[in-house]
Amino acid sequence: MSNRFAAGTGWGAIAAPISPAAVHGIEPRIAVDRHGNAVAVWLSVTPEAATFLVANHFDVAALAWDTEVSVLADDEVDQLAPDLVVDAAGNALVIFHVEKSEAAALVTAAKRYVAHKASWEATTELSRSIDIVSTPPMLAIDRQGDGWALFVQFDLDFLNEHLMTVPFK
Length: 169
Known about the structure:
By secondary structure, the protein is mainly β. The chain has strands at residues 5-6, 10-11, 25-32, 38-45, 51-59, 64-65, 69-70, 79-86, 92-100, 105-114, 119-120, 124-129, 132-134, 138-141, 147-155, 161-168. Strands 3, 4, 5, 6 and 7 form a five-stranded antiparallel β-sheet that branches.
């Protein structure tokens, strides 16, 4: 479900679910551009308990949500801990973890939504390790769309912490 607040008029009516196909949605994130358009991401949980990163775009001119889209390929199961930012032009960055079962690896990855194309670019892998556990990643973005990803990785014995930063252009 979603609801929109407009300055001067207050809260609107609760909207229909933005994800009618989701079996169960967890960890929702939303960010808004300077015009009032929004991007939302969340993890959709299947009956088999796999999690998939899903997104939707709110068009302020139409006052409606678009159709939800799966952000990653179906073989990239168990996506975790998303964070989301949107720049002034409506371009979004989302960062998340992906558990890669074939290599028993935890990958920190990111994707960019390009507003004028209304599409997601290819996934960028930021970090991969078989021996390291990571905290949920965080993002920051400026008005030009340049951003930073930040996350902490721990060795499996938790004796060493590594603060990781990755710039985006």
